[in-house]
Design brief:
Layout: E1 8-11, H1 25-33, H2 35-47, H3 55-58, E2 66-68, H4 79-87, H5 94-104, E3 110-113, H6 118-125, H7 153-168, H8 174-181, H9 183-189, E4 205-208, E5 229-234, E6 237-241, E7 244-245
Antiparallel strand pairs: 1-3, 2-3, 4-5, 5-6, 6-7
Length: 258
């Protein structure tokens, strides 16, 4: 499974080695407050540990490749800017700043990491066995579900594939991209009568203009609808009509084999 971005969403606390998380968040915060343990943590973060995927080394220790996506005082800032703001012109250790803000924010700061390349992503995207998914969450342009500064994948994944990687670059054929987003996912998850346009299947249908469809969501402004999608049907009911929500809510939770 892949999405069409070179950055992934996780938490700033994922930079902390696994052993320091043992016992829960409160225990981790106690360890972050301990000056002696901080020295051990810094060594392990910069050098790595066997079997641990280290987000710090994955981005080359480059603080500018870490973007705070969660709601809070640092929302929308890259870590290099956070460190600069906290240093007030003095030379500081970036990991010390990281420990400090994790303690201040209760141990959880959602963060977007730029940890792989466009070449890597495209290689996965074109494999016939690799499906496409957003890995996203439930967000909305307005209201209670508009929160933080999330990854643009929540609003942009599928139109980005259709616009950039089918129409613009041509690395995928339209029919292959559609299969990767629909029937391949449904089959893998065991979703009965989903993901195909055929008699007897549930009518979950997106009507889009292949000449216009494109994502608009960015890391800086993630709450933006895509272009070129005019109609959406869910379980046979129109929920998007000429780009406007109809108020219909026919969706349901899907379970394997049902």
């Amino acid at each position: 499974n892949v999405y069409p971005y070179t950055r992934g969403n996780n938490n700033l606390a994922s930079i902390i080695p696994p052993w320091a998380h043992e016992g829960g968040t409160a225990k981790m915060l106690d360890r972050l407050r301990d000056p002696k343990l901080r020295q051990r943590l810094k060594k392990e973060i910069t050098e790595g540990l066997p079997g641990w995927y280290n987000h710090y080394t994955a981005v080359g220790g480059d603080w500018s490749r870490m973007l705070i996506s969660g709601k809070g005082p640092y929302e929308g800032l890259t870590m290099d800017r956070v460190i600069a703001a906290r240093s007030k012109g003095k030379k500081v250790d970036g990991l010390e700043v990281l420990f400090d803000i994790l303690v201040e924010q209760g141990g959880s700061i959602p963060t977007v990491y730029e940890h792989h390349t466009e070449k890597d992503m495209r290689l996965a995207l074109i494999q016939p066995w690799c499906s496409i998914g957003s890995d996203g969450s439930a967000y909305a342009i307005e209201g209670k579900l508009r929160r933080g500064n999330p990854h643009p994948r929540n609003f942009g994944t599928f139109p980005r594939v259709l616009g950039r990687y089918v129409r613009e670059t041509g690395i995928l054929r339209l029919e292959d991209a559609i299969r990767k987003m629909t029937s391949l996912n449904a089959a893998r998850l065991g979703l009965k009568d989903r993901g195909q346009l055929r008699a007897g299947a549930f009518a979950d249908v997106t009507l889009f203009d292949p000449h216009r469809v494109l994502d608009r969501a960015t890391y800086e402004k993630p709450f933006q609808y895509p272009e070129g999608i005019e109609y959406v049907l869910v379980n046979g009911q129109v929920v998007l009509d000429r780009g406007k929500h109809t108020g219909a809510r026919p969706g349901q939770v899907l379970r394997r084999g049902r």
